[in-house]
């Protein structure tokens, strides 16, 4: 598929790389960009040869937010009636793991986009922030809720109410990102692709189940979440891959997963 605002490639046979490509606007997330992103994610999700997706931006910006110029003159009645930006949440229905490789600015909707991914790796240049307060508004793509789950009330309040940008190191200390990779152009993307390749070597049916149960932790009570995890765990005993994985261990050999 030909896109205007994103690039797609296959750096590894089982890993799709999606690069936000509006460099002059620091990857501001205009509506057509998001429509393309959703389409590329769905295509990768539906392609059985793809096991993981890496999402990245440029060295200067992962994404500097929703497109302010596109939004500035909108009226309540329009945004309400058209469910403005509600399609952003479509990516949370993707079943395959999405790894964000963040360099430079991840602000506003750009920070929220990263937070909708499953794993975030940061380059030392990454800066995260919810600066909407400086524009007379608040996060609208889940930032207030997802950050509160991850970093707690005080840090979320500070980010949302002051708009302060936090460094890659702070984001790592706070648990927003899983780690900061070593310095260098493209290092964070390389590392994210390596994580995707590692995931691709597993049983994809258990990867999908693993993503599903971890995400349930953000929706369910502890008792319901534990029961859900146990049920899915039980269910995996019906797969060929569980038999293969455990037999291979007992026979001291490498498993050969068939994703069934
Ligand atoms: C539209 C943007 C943009 C944005 C940058 N640009 N961010 N355009 N929407 N979010 C454009 C600039 O207008 C400029 O275009 C070009 O990108 C380069 O940006 P500069 O500002 O010249 O670069 P610099 O001085 O290096 O500053 C970088 C920056 C700053 C600190 C990241 O651009 C900035 O503050 N951007 C806005 C960040 C922000 O407020 N994000 C939250 C948006 S609200 P020209 O044409 O002048 O060269 C949001 C709500 C989410 O995200 C709701 C989700 C549902």
TrEMBL record:
The keyword Disulfide bond does not apply. It comes from the Eukaryota. Transmembrane segments: none annotated. InterPro entries: ClpP/crotonase-like_dom_sf, Enoyl-CoA_hyd/isom_CS, Enoyl-CoA_hydra/iso, Enoyl-CoA_hydra_C. Pfam families: ECH_1. One of its GO terms (molecular function) is enoyl-CoA hydratase activity. GO terms for biological process: fatty acid beta-oxidation. Keywords: Fatty acid metabolism, Lipid metabolism, Lyase. Gene3D superfamilies: 2-enoyl-CoA Hydratase, Chain A, domain 1 (3.90.226.10), Lyase 2-enoyl-coa Hydratase, Chain A, domain 2 (1.10.12.10). One of its GO terms (cellular component) is mitochondrion. Its EC number is 4.2.1.17. Belongs to the enoyl-CoA hydratase/isomerase family. This is Probable enoyl-CoA hydratase, mitochondrial.
